Each structure stands twice: as structure tokens, then as C-alpha cells.
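Explain this one:

_____
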Amino acid sequence: MPRGDRKFLYRVVLVAALLRLVFVLWYPQVPAGIGDDRTYEQVALNLVAGKGFSGGLSSGQWERTGQPAPLDVPGDPEIGFGPVYPAFLAGIYLSIGHLPVGVRVMQALLSALTIVIMFRLARDAYGVRVARLTAIAMMAFPAFIVYSGMLLTETLVVFWLALLVWSVMHAARVASTSAWILAGVIAGVAVLLRQELILVFPVLMILAVWKAQVKPGWRYVTLFIVIAMMTIGVWTVRNYVVFKQVILVAAHGGDTLWLSTTGWSEWNYDDEELKSLTEGLDYLEQNKVFRQEGIRRILEDPIGYAALCFRRIPMFWITSHTSYLVGLEQGFGAYYARAEYGRLSIKLLFLAVNVGVILLASFGIASVFRQRLPWPGVLLLAPIGVIAIVHFLLFAAPRYQVPIMPFVLVFAAVGFLNFQSWWSERRIKLATALQ
């Protein structure tokens, strides 16, 4: 990397780290353990206490009350999510004690370091100007700052997904066995971090075979897939030993499918149908019932399900990312009704930033498709397409957008520069015509 780029990147990463550290250390944070983060916390603390990978979603309470078991109860063996994020939390707690601030600081640093990976990806795909704009945008993008303070998977997924795309690009470039082994391990860990990423790494492999300048041979393709599946397989074996069933990563799928057929924006734990489906069943049994009922609903009313899918588009894409920001967590209507126009203005500004980035990215994607699409650029499109499709078909919440936003910002930078070039040409033509 040229010295000028290194100096620029060091400065941007330093400012990004300072912004995030100031936010997590001095700005009031949402208390840990009051939402989905409680399930990760419970499993992490059980790991630290030597009680195994237990508790969390499998504790058997969330389906009826919306509240997981207390943190100090071991609970049943966990099968609702993969092991990586609870292990990440447990590693920090083993080092410093049960201090959520330590997790926030680590996530703040990881969020800043992700800029280095995305700078390299953007530079290899579209040049240094796009890479610099991407780095600056990532430094200040509100969602990355806000979620670094939450004990949720988003920040770690952002980092690991960027690392996964880089590892495939690097392996295709150097064409070495060790690079493809590394990429396979990273892919496997990514799936154990968030199960939906099992759809991303095969797409990356297919694109590498199709578009890479030096196409990987079948030996490398097979090696990559085998190593990824072996990495995942370690957890699959654990699941079989504990539950006597072949469960690749987690059983958290049936409930998501059923929820996707309801039209709800969040779980309604007082719903009578939900209570009747979950009463007296353990987590695995509940997911089996949810899956069957979800499939039945889709087959009985495919048009209604399709309508729900399209309703999820704005739920996924149009957000201010302020639901976890203390002082701005309520809806737009609540602040308007109380005439709190300052807070309302900030929320609207954050919304405008997010929507503006997506519009610029849409323009950038359209413009690169009109040109010769470089193969690294194809890799950067893969996470956007795969995860957007997943949450078109299944339940969508604003935070599920966060892992793909670094890639969206790359194309927003492309769109900004292309728009700038187009506008300059228009001005020159207009000035020439007026002479």
C-alpha cells in the first residue's frame, strides 16, 4: 500500500475509534440484558461459570413471556444460535469480569478496524478514490457507532463478513492452498456466528469461479468447501451428541418462518395462537411446530405471504438506526406529539443519511452494471444481494441491515463520484452552449 494511503487510513481509523470509544464510554447506553442481548449474556456467563453452552433461547420462557430465564440459571443446552458471539462475550468476561463496557470497547475497536478491510476491498474493486470515500463514510456512519455499544451480533458480523469477502478475494488472487484453507475457516466461523451467512459463502465461491481473473481450479473449490463444512461440522457434531439430531448450526428457523407469515414487526407474546403453539413444548419441538405451521400458512395463502414479503422491503431498508440510541429510541410520532422537535430533527437527519446512502448506492450499482463490472466488484455485491433476499423472504428488522452497509457504502461512493462526474460534464456542456 502506498505511504499516502497508509497515512490516510491510519488517521481515519484513529478518528473512527475515538468516535466509537467516546460514544460507548461517555454517551448513555441501553442497559445490557433487557432485550435479545440477554440470551447471549446468559449463555456467555454460563460458559464462564463452567455450566456449558446453555440457557438463552432454549431456556423455554421467551416464547410465552418474551423474557428469557434469569442470568444465573443454567437452563437447557442452547440450540437457538451458534457459538461464536457467546464465546466472544465469554472470552472478554473471563479476562476482565462481567463488565459489558469491555465488550463495548472491543466492539468499538473492531468496528474501526473493519474500515481497513473495506478500504482494501473498495480499492481493489474501484480504485483509491472510492476506497477513501468509503473509509470516511464508514468512519462517521451512525449505525456503526450506535451498534458498537449494543451486546448484539451486528458489529462482529460486520467485521467478519468483510473479512470473509476479503479472504475469498485474496485466495483467488494468490491461488495458494493456505489462502483457500484460511478462507474456508473464515467462512465456517461466519456461519457459526450468524447462520444466514451459509448462503453467502457459496455465492462468493461461485462468483470467484465465474469472474476471477485467475479462476480457482476444482481442487481449490473443493478445499474451500470442505474446510468450511468441517469448521461448521465441529458444532454439528456437538448438536448431534447433545440433541440426537442432525442440526447444522441452530434450530432458530421455524419460529422465524412462522413470524414471517404473521405480518408482525415484533413478537406478540400475548397472542393466543402463539401461546397454543408453544405450550408445553421444548425449544426444538416448538420450532418443528412453527416450521410446519409457517409452511402451511404460505401454501394456503401464497399471495398474502408475497404481500408480506414486499411489506418487508421498507422495514429492512428505510430506518434511522436510532431504536437503540438512548434519547432517540421512541418513534417519530411520539416526539412529534410531545413537540420535541430537536429529537425529531435528529431522527429525521439520521433517516435522511441512511436513505441517501442507499439511493446513492442504487445509482452506483446501476452505473457499474452499465460498464464492465470488475470481478472484485461482483464479490462486494454478493452480501448485499443474498442478505437482502433472505430478509425479503423472512422476518426483517432494521438492525439486520447493518452487516451489509459497508458494502452499500462502497457503491454509494461509486455513485457519488459518478454523479459528480456526470454533473461536471453537464456544466461544461451548458457553459459551452451559452458561449
Remarks:
- Residues 185 and 366 are 33 Å apart (CA to CA).
- The chain is about 70% helix and 0% strand.
- The chain has one domain: 3-30+99-250+301-434.
